[in-house]
Design a protein that fits this description.
The chain is α/β, with parallel strands linked by helices and 472 residues long. Helices cover 50% and strands 11% of the residues. Helix 7 links the parallel strand 3 and strand 4. The radius of gyration is 28 Å and the shape is flat. The two termini are 53 Å apart.
Length: 472
Amino acid sequence: MIHRNQKTLNRLNLLSDGVLIVLCYLFASWLWLDVIRNTKGNMAALSSLNARGILAAVIYAIWTVFLLSLLRVYHTSRVHRTRRESGRILAGNAIALATAASALFVFRLQDFSRGVLAVYFLSSSAVLIGKRTTVRWLLRRVRARGYNLKHMLVVGSGKLARRYVENVQADPTLGIHVEQCLAPAKGMLEQLESRLHDAGIDEVILALAPDELGVTVDIIQVCEKCGTKISVVPFYNDVIPTRPTIDMVGNLKLIQLRTTPLDEPANAFIKRAFDIVVSGLLLVLLSPLFLILAIAIRLSSPGPVLFRQERIGLNKKPFTMYKFRSMRVNDEQDTAWSSAEDDRRTWLGAFLRKVSIDELPQLWNVLTGTMSLVGPRPEIPFYVERFRETVPLYMVKYQVRPGMTGWAQIHGLRGDTSIPARVEHDLWYIENWSLGLDIRILLKTALGGMVNQEDIGSAANSRPDGGEGMAQ
């Protein structure tokens, strides 16, 4: 019953989106042409009540709904994240907008307004996201009261089965009710089949411990025989990523445990193009500041303007990272950490480190491709060798380019802070990357994330020798 109802609701969801898109398009036409531009009576204008405008709205709605379907917006789930769904709606709307604008240019359709498309994009995005937010809120309220429940049967007697039950019980808004837990034992298969033949179980959750895996195939066969959907909590749950990738070698399925959005060529291209454009622009705009700082650093103490240090980057390859020199030249730059009263800093360097200006030459690293604007911070080889042996999953972060700033840094994990906590944040960023997330991190860094807790007058947070503004 749940599955039949869900299919009906999905169709209604798609149809209602189409209707809302048509209305938003007509609203955008009326607002832009009849109100803002006041083009009534102009034959070149697309009035919201014009038959041609209505036809354009219907075509646009069909195309947009098709794109949203490709992006799996209508693949609903009780545990689906609203943020991810909103991102897909924005992406689908953006693609629809881009293709429509391209069509206007290619076919020289002068009687269709690009301003209408812009207003439509804003209004339809707000309406579609608002609709889903409202529906989800209402459904959660209804489910929390014990209605619209999905009835589950859990197979397993280990900690994974217990964790699943505890998690769904802790969040009643999911509307998931565990009817029964069956432990793999003699007679369990017959009991399972008898239970599934009765109406009332919507899905079986297979949460077996490693020593219980021998009955996996038999349980799946019973569920398929009874036509009951089955989901699996893998025994390696704690190491599998949020969105694993499955490849085929012959008839063997390979689950890649460390795939990320940046493994997709399109995503990698978008991130790299963004890095090149932004870093190149900033290098040009900040060149006068660079010149002033270079002169000031040379006058503050003997030594080079730039501090060069070997770091470990993408695919564990070493590269040279650049900073403005903030300390006097010393012999411990590859192993030493600054102490609570470090007298190696120059008077200018203390200020540069305080506001992270010493990090700006890394824009050159970004432009040349050894770093990214956003990503896990790179470390010097001496500490990489230490942390790889003592911090679980530490080396996973080197599957992407290191960054000038990152998810860990904007959450206060810089300086003398927990390395495991930084790794946890870095892995979350890697598995959940999006261009919007990068922009969010950059804005938070620029609007307050560059000033650290370092004391200009005396000491620094414990940081590698050359200083870590946005670095740690």
